[in-house]
Write a structure and sequence with these properties.
This protein is mostly helical. It is 68% helix and 0% strand. The protein starts with a helix and ends in an 8-residue tail after the last helix.
């Protein structure tokens, strides 16, 4: 059973089963950030989550499926961007990302482990690519809205701009450089976000 399977039937699921599922997925991400993908084991997830190993194997074939579902669960839990001007919406999203990178959020801590494993395992690389695109989709969706309402140029490559806006925040975190502070995000947005198209 995957996250997607469970999410469509939550009204019918036993609350104890749902609680165990969440515990397993959270434990998976915590351990991924602590020990890396190579040393992540189902046994360790069972010990951390308090859920029996046999139960975990009934719902997930192995750690790749666990990691995939855990990241998807994290993305599903993120609220949609609030309405408003595109510059403010993008700024709000990036400030959230900056706060997570600066903090000790275990979801951010496990990204280096996933990147390292991607260099050795094609299946993990596929998961990493899908997760990166899913994560970037929130910023891209706001930029697409900006294009649709005329706040941004019609020819704008919104995926490329989303990469450019989020790239500095993640790269500084991954390379242990001084992180982008939340109060610096408006300047980053002002530097990269195109001006509204000129009126005819």
């Amino acid at each position: 059973m995957t996250v997607q399977d469970v999410s469509t039937t939550k009204v019918d699921i036993d609350p104890r089963v749902e609680r165990s599922r969440v515990q397993v997925l959270h434990a998976t991400l915590e351990l991924l950030g602590e020990v890396g993908y190579g040393d992540l084991t189902i046994e360790a997830v069972a010990a951390r989550s308090g859920v029996a190993k046999s139960t975990i194997y009934r719902h997930w074939k192995g750690k790749l499926e666990l990691v995939t579902d855990a990241f998807h669960e994290m993305k599903v839990a993120e609220p949609p961007p609030a309405p408003g001007p595109v510059a403010q919406r993008v700024t709000d999203l990036l400030m959230d990302i900056a706060r997570n990178v600066i903090g000790t959020d275990w979801r951010v801590n496990c990204l280096p482990a996933l990147i390292e494993a991607s260099a050795r395992c094609p299946e993990v690389a596929d998961v990493s690519r899908d997760l990166a695109e899913a994560g970037m989709s929130r910023v891209k969706a706001v930029l697409d809205d900006g294009v649709a309402v005329g706040e941004l140029p019609a020819e704008l490559d919104t995926m490329l701009l989303a990469d450019a806006l989020t790239g500095p925040i993640f790269l500084r975190g991954l390379f242990h450089r001084r992180p982008v502070q939340p109060d610096e995000v408006p300047g980053l947005v002002a530097l990269l976000l195109p001006s509204p198209p000129s009126s005819p």
